[in-house]
Amino acid sequence: YVHAHDDNCIFCKIAAGQIPSRKVYEDDELFAFHDIAPWAPVHFLIIPKRHIPSLAHTGPGDAALLGRILALAPQLAAQEGCNPYPDGGFRVQINTGAEGGQEVHHLHVHVIGGPRPWKKA
Ligand code: 5GP
Ligand code: ZN
């Protein structure tokens, strides 16, 4: 099963430029953009351009893609103004499924940071 583009998916449309967003980063397989309702001074999302519904839909064949997303997080966090470790830092969060609090069903990695207080602890 190849996850391609889901015509009903808002993040597929954002990655394709069909819905506007404040872009943070783009390459051939990844896209990053600011969250529309930020929980903290810095809050952006990193997504694969390919439609993968959630982290629960990934497997060993997605290890390189997931690794690329995770490796990008600290670079973009610094670029977007998160202060350095350890006094600064940032949070990486992947909500997965209903009990995990996932609302948009296209895999996305939250990167959250900047000076506290944050709207969510
Ligand atoms: P989830 O709860 O699924 O992990 O988080 C989805 C996130 O996507 C939320 O933080 C929400 O604010 C963000 N979001 C939902 N729709 C849009 C949109 O159209 N544009 C942007 N930039 N963010 C969105
Ligand atoms: Zn999608």
Automatic annotation (TrEMBL):
Pfam families assigned:
HIT
The chain positions of domain HIT read 10-121
State the Gene3D superfamilies in the record: HIT-like
Short sequence motif Histidine triad motif: positions: 106-110
CDD domains annotated for this entry?
PKCI_related
SUPFAM superfamilies to which the protein is assigned, alphabetical? HIT-like
Q: What is this protein called?
A: Histidine triad nucleotide-binding protein
Q: Which organism encodes this protein?
A: Comamonas nitrativorans
